[in-house]
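ok new one. same drill as before - structure tokens go in, u give me an amino acid for every spot. 415 of them this time. try not to just spam alanines like last time pls lmao
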């Protein structure tokens, strides 16, 4: 190890990031053993809802979004390829650039006229081998999934049982059970939980049994829910009662975090389907109320509005049980990652989780992490340079330790 002040900070940061086994704390990835949930390959990659939304802005004449939606996935992928990658403009959006990065990482020609080469090179690849290849190339050690026992496809997979891949950790996702109450009642009843439409004491205890049963069954490392920008706590709404009566006390009882991803305005344009959601600003005094009332619960928090990021950092300074994570969704773009990471370091030091990929398709790890670290690395290097310039005898070990703390999954992984 070199002596303080004698090494290149940016080289040390780059090395530490490339050597750090990354723990990706929020994804929609699943192991191949979970069958249809495990998405990979060109047709999935090109029909990512980010790209569908971007393609919907310039579909070929005669193809409406409604018509596009009815096409088989390979045809949709071909149209998106032609529209966004072979068309008359360069693929410079983050999602478009991502596809180019993936194809380059796989040794494919990103200026190909069609997807035939990409499809051909996947044809005889075993999914498990591809998981190993992608994790290795992306420097990812493990990912946290988004698991919903009430999902019509995922539920039966858990009921049948499957050999777990330890690289895919479970997270109990609560949107379908609790959002839009009493929408989840029927499926919860079908799973054997005797809940009613009324949020009675019986319903509360049955919901807590559901959370406990499935956190046990999945070995879920945290519980997560995405919430709208008008979520208020305390509040008279069903979701406020369910969060305060069911989720937070269960998180406390199990000593696992409650993750809240706040600011989604669902389906502002339904014709775009999974690409039809937008965002809104959340009044973070609600987060202060939650963190103050549940001071012994850790809250993993990510918010969707860029305008809320600075306030989230300040809220985390007031409440040590608020753990900001990631540059989520519409924020997962270099220009915003740089701003968010800088203000988090300035206000929180290293006590936050800089990024998650939110990947839905396995191939996406090949771009989401390299793109993010290409921005986060220099931000960290500038901060360590300032630290050294201020007179701190910085060592490479300091940098390695800090990056392990921010990207290594922390106590979420504790067995
Ligand atoms: O609710 C979520 O977990 C979001 O990440 C949504 O899945 C969103 O559609 C998404 O994929 N963002 O990247
Ligand atoms: Zn997500």
């Amino acid at each position: 190890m070199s002596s303080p002040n004698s090494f290149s900070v940016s080289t040390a940061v780059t090395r530490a990031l490339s050597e750090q086994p990354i723990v990706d704390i929020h994804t929609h990835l699943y192991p191949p053993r979970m069958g249809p949930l495990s998405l990979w390959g060109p047709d999935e990659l090109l029909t990512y809802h980010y790209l569908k939304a971007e393609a919907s802005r310039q579909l070929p004449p005669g193809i409406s979004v409604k018509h596009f939606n009815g096409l088989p996935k390979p045809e949709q992928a071909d149209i998106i390829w032609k529209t966004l990658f072979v068309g008359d403009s360069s693929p410079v959006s983050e999602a478009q650039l991502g596809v180019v990065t993936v194809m380059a990482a796989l040794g494919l020609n990103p200026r190909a006229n069609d997807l035939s080469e990409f499809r051909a090179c996947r044809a005889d690849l075993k999914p498990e081998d591809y998981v190993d290849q992608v994790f290795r190339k992306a420097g990812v050690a493990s990912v946290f999934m988004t698991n919903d026992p009430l999902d019509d496809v995922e539920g039966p997979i858990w009921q049948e049982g499957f050999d777990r891949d330890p690289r895919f950790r479970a997270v109990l996702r609560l949107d379908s059970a609790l959002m839009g109450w009493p929408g989840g009642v029927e499926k919860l009843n079908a799973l054997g939980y005797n809940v009613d439409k009324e949020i009675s004491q019986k319903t509360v205890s049955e919901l807590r049994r559901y959370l406990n049963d499935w956190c046990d069954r999945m070995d879920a490392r945290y519980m997560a829910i995405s919430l709208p920008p008008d979520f208020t706590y305390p509040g008279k709404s069903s979701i406020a009662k369910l969060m305060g009566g069911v989720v937070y006390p269960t998180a406390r009882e199990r000593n696992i975090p409650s993750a809240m991803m706040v600011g989604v305005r669902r389906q502002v344009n339904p014709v775009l389907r999974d690409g039809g959601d937008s965002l809104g600003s959340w009044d973070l005094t609600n987060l202060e109320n939650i963190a103050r009332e549940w001071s012994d619960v850790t809250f993993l928090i990510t918010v969707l509005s860029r305008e809320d990021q600075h306030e989230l950092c300040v809220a985390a300074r007031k409440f040590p049980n608020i753990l900001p994570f990631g540059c989520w969704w519409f924020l997962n773009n270099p220009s915003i990652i740089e701003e968010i990471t800088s203000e988090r370091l300035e206000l929180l030091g290293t006590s936050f989780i800089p990024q998650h990929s939110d990947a839905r398709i396995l191939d996406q790890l090949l771009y989401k992490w390299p793109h993010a670290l290409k921005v986060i690395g220099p931000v960290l290097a500038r901060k360590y340079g300032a630290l050294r310039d201020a007179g701190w005898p910085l060592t490479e070990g300091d940098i390695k330790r800090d990056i392990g703390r921010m990207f290594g999954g922390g106590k979420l992984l504790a067995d």
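The first strand starts at residue 22 and ends at 24. and btw Residues 28, 146, 226, 261, 274, 329, 358, 360 surround D-arabinohydroxamic acid (ligand 1) (CB under 6 Å).
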